[in-house]
Design a protein that fits this description.
- The complex is a heterotrimer of chains A (about 325), B (about 260) and C (about 290).
- With about 325 residues, chain A is mostly helical.
- Chain A is built from 13 helices and two strands, in the order H-H-H-H-H-E-H-H-H-H-E-H-H-H-H.
- Chain A has helices at about 5-25, 25-50, 60-75, 80-105, 110-130, 155-180, 180-190, 195-200, 205-230, 240-250, 260-275, 280-295, 300-310, and strands at about 140, 230.
- Chain C has one domain (about 15-220).
- In chain C, helix 1 (about 1-35) packs across helix 9.
- The chains are: A mainly alpha (about 325), B alpha/beta (about 260), C mainly alpha (about 290).
Chain lengths: ~325, ~260, ~290
């Protein structure tokens, strides 16, 4: 399990996350909650890309599905989070099953293009469908309720802790998943699919399962996102969003899970900071991406490991 | 050794296979392997030996003809199903999980046999808690002489050691039929001797189809030899018969 | 009669759109087939071609002069990119390729936005090609669009001849199947790669150039069309030129008719078509066989 040293390293950031709302004001709260929703999204993508080895440019479809399902259910009058959340996740899982059946089994490059095109299909449906509010999107007039629990999701602080709770659960759950018998097989398939197949594993089934789990978790991120913004529109479903989340994962460190969360944090903060000075913040991001790939040096986690390696005997 | 079963473990009947661009790799290829038999497949490069192996394992589908495993038709059956039907295979070029340790490679292979399809649903408890699987790893590695290297990442292994791991992975499933594609390619004399001894032992429990270039190995291990030339079987017989067959000599052994 | 004229016009529009997609998808599929690289930024060359036309027209140049200059500029940019950042990708994994080309899109888009401004721009139809040609019973069809269709067909034919009837084309086809062997034959594989990339980029730029007076220009215009290009390649089968042609025409016509008849559903129609094809032939209509 987790070593003592590792645990010690993470207590500081965790303490900061827990104490943050008591120190900072509304802006911090809003920003960090956004980071948390994207952290969940990014971690789900890390499962898919970093562990199962399936590079997808269509993951935003599930993020969006979770968000839209939440919006639609609330509009229909559903109030209880105990019903809204599972329902939104179920719908997202079904979409993941559908899209997964169509895309899993195609080769690496084809898979990228098929997932991209399929998520564009979902995007266009959201853009043109009256149920989803077309280009205007959906406004969430109310947040779901957690009664009988004393948590009030309308209160930004409560919602922050709620999101933090989910993020930690997802992190812990994925940790278990990747080390489980299933997870090890999925990783083996990433490293050498044909070998695993020759060992008797029905590799497509494992890939589809990983795809569905990753999609559903992205839907959880979308659910939290919709509630945070009290709003959802098709711009969250584009492949550029999928690409940006992929950047978050790679930035933080592919295949580390907490790296994805870290990457989400870094990316969003950088975006906030740089866009104060220039509209064209995408340019340095692009240059950075190109440089990062060419240098092949891993993400933030790898950098941290190299730095801390100096302090180890 | 007595061959008592009536149904051959492997039957290839009239198989044709061509690649895009018109290259005919297999042409009316037929052969039959009995349970417990060790069959060597020899022939010049490009004769279609690996293509045949790939059609047996399900990586390729024959254009025409039939392949039967234990009486069941397996044309186009996917590789994982064929593997579960009791076929273990080594690849001509090392095909391992290079980024993982030797232990993990073997463990994954054993997990497949011991857990079967249930691996798909085991999401929660770490793989470390699969005691039955983990306990079987040292024995498997010891059989091929890799017990010392269990903790090492595969990419640090020598070529010969990797070939040994290939063999271990093929054996993990406890297969009835072993398809070994040049298992000792690139091995030193010492390693070759060790693996030949292992294979001699394996002969007693498994049917083996052995693709080989080294004639000494062939004559030591094989019960029967099939000569493949230009995609079809030129001759089948005991090692002695093949060695003395004038057609074979002309087509293949002539240069020796 | 009105409906027949309408049908004819939409068909011509669809074919023309399909040919534009064909130029794009051929480039993409060639680059992938020969170098094994998926270039997300392929649509950016479409954009560069379009903005090149805009720029050189803005300098007051006539069409016959503008076209080669714009094309040459795009080719130059393509070659520079190939030599500097894309070459290292040839042996890398798909994720690295996606990341790098994604970054490239960002850089190129923002650069165009900074140089030309983010507003939507329009380009007038070149003088020499303005006007309407008589089509059928009093209905006319824009000459420029006929020119685009003719050019698309001519380039398509020239490509076919080049790939299937010349020695260089044969080398390219061989390289697509077995890179190492071509190298072993003593042919400088690096030059083949650069050449193929330039060809692909050039085709994309030409497509953008031709489309410029018909579409509106904005920095993200490459992205929209690259998605459709991907759909074409998926439907046609990765690596197949024939598949690219048939799929582009199919999708071009479907999209055009869709937009004219059922505007709401039109965008979904193309993707639904793709889903349909994938259900029957998971590797595309003309895939390269087992495990393309």
């Amino acid at each position: 399990m987790i070593s003592r040293a590792r645990l010690a390293v993470w207590t500081l950031p965790l303490a900061y996350l827990l104490a943050g709302p008591l120190i900072h004001g509304g802006f911090w709260l809003n920003l960090m909650t956004l980071v948390l929703t994207y952290a969940v999204f990014a971690m789900s993508m890390d499962l898919l890309v970093g562990f199962a080895g399936m590079v997808s440019l269509g993951h935003a479809a599930f993020f969006g599905m979770g968000a839209y399902a939440t919006g639609i259910l609330l509009e229909l009058g559903w109030r209880s989070e105990y019903l809204v959340l599972p329902a939104a996740l179920l719908v997202t899982a079904l979409l993941a099953l559908l899209l997964g059946r169509l895309s899993v089994g195609t080769s690496g490059v084809s898979f990228i293009m098929v997932t991209l095109a399929l998520s564009q299909l979902v995007y266009h449906v959201a853009l043109n469908s009256p149920w989803t509010g077309s280009t205007d999107g959906l406004i969430l007039s109310q947040r779901p309720t957690l009664s009988p629990l004393p948590l009030n999701l309308e209160d930004p602080r409560h919602f922050y802790y709620y999101s933090l709770g989910w993020a930690l659960i997802v992190l812990a759950g994925l940790r278990r998943l990747v080390d489980s018998p299933f997870g090890r097989v999925a990783q083996g398939i990433r490293v050498n699919e044909s070998r695993m197949e020759s060992l008797g594993y029905n590799t497509q089934r494992y890939q589809l399962t990983a795809f569905i789990i990753a999609g559903t978790l992205a839907g959880l991120g979308g659910h939290l996102f919709a509630i945070l913004q009290n709003f959802i529109d098709p711009t969250s479903l584009t492949w550029q969003v999928s690409g940006q989340v992929l950047v978050m994962v790679v930035l933080g460190g592919l295949g580390t899970l907490h790296g994805a969360a870290l990457g989400a944090f870094a990316f969003i903060l950088l975006e906030q900071w740089i866009s104060r000075y220039t509209q064209h913040w995408m340019l340095p991001l692009g240059v950075f991406l190109v440089a990062m790939v060419l240098s092949g040096r891993g993400g933030i986690m790898a950098l941290l490991q190299r730095l801390t390696a100096r302090f180890r005997p | 050794m007595s061959l008592t079963q009536a149904i051959p473990i492997l039957e290839v009947r009239g198989v044709y296979k061509s690649y895009l661009g018109g290259l005919q790799a297999n042409l009316d290829l037929s052969l039959s392997v009995s349970r417990g038999e060790t069959r060597a497949l020899i022939g010049p490069n490009g004769a279609g030996k690996t293509t045949l192996i790939n059609q047996i394992t399900g990586h390729l589908r024959p254009d025409r003809g039939e392949i039967r495993l234990k009486g069941h038709r397996i044309n186009g059956v996917p590789p994982h199903t064929v593997a579960r039907m009791g076929v273990g295979r080594t690849f001509q070029k090392n095909n391992l999980m290079e980024a993982f340790t030797v232990f993990e490679n073997a463990r994954l292979a054993l997990q497949s046999r011991l857990l079967g399809e249930r691996s798909l649903w085991r999401f929660w408890r770490p793989a470390e808690t699969l005691h039955e699987v983990n306990a079987a790893v040292p024995d498997l590695l010891a059989r091929v002489g890799l017990e010392e290297r269990a903790g090492d990442p595969v990419h640090t292994l020598s070529h010969g050691e990797k070939r040994q791991l290939e063999l271990a992975l093929a054996l993990a499933g406890n297969p009835e039929l072993l398809l070994l594609d040049e298992p000792m390619a690139g091995m030193s004399v010492e390693e070759t001797r060790r693996i030949t001894a292992l294979l001699k032992d394996l002969k007693r429990h498994h049917a083996i189809v052995l693709v080989e270039h080294d004639m000494d190995t062939v004559f030591t291990l094989a019960d029967t030899v099939s000569v493949l030339v230009y995609g079809t079987v030129l001759a089948t017989g005991s090692g002695q018969d093949i060695r003395e067959d004038p057609e074979v000599q002309e087509a293949y052994l002539g240069t020796e | 009669m009105e409906t027949l004229a309408f049908f004819l016009i939409q068909l011509l529009n669809g074919m023309q759109y399909g040919l534009l997609l064909f130029l794009l998808s051929t480039g993409l599929t060639l680059i992938f087939g020969v170098m094994g690289v998926i270039n997300l930024a392929h649509g950016s060359f479409f954009m560069i071609g379009a903005y090149g036309a805009f720029y050189f027209t803005g300098l007051g140049l006539d069409f016959p002069l503008m076209l080669p200059l714009a094309l040459a500029t795009a080719l130059a940019i393509g070659l520079i990119l190939e030599l500097t950042v894309l070459r290292p990708l040839y042996d890398r994994d798909p994720l690295s390729q996606v990341m790098l080309t994604f970054g490239l899109i960002l850089v190129l888009n923002e650069s165009v936005s900074m140089i030309f401004g983010p507003e939507i721009k329009a380009l007038p139809i070149p003088e020499v090609l303005q006007g309407v040609a008589p089509l059928w019973r009093g209905h006319g069809y824009p000459i420029y669009r006929l020119f685009v269709t003719a050019t698309g067909l001519a380039v398509g034919a020239a490509l076919w001849v080049f790939i299937h009837r010349t020695r260089l084309g044969m080398i390219i086809r061989a390289g697509a199947v077995n890179r190492e062997m071509v190298g072993a034959l003593g042919i400088n594989i690096r030059w083949v790669f650069s050449g193929v990339f330039a060809l692909g980029a050039g085709l994309a730029a030409l497509s953008g150039l031709l489309a410029a007076p018909i579409l509106s220009l904005y920095p993200g215009m490459g992205e929209e069309i690259i998605i459709l290009t991907f759909v074409v390649v998926v439907v046609g089968g990765l690596g197949s030129l024939r598949g690219a042609l048939i799929a582009s025409l199919l999708i071009g016509v479907a999209d055009t008719f869709g937009k004219a008849v059922l505007p709401q559903l039109s965008s979904v129609l193309v993707y639904a078509l793709m889903v349909g094809v994938l259900l029957i032939r998971p590797h595309g209509l003309f895939s390269r066989g087992e495990g393309a």
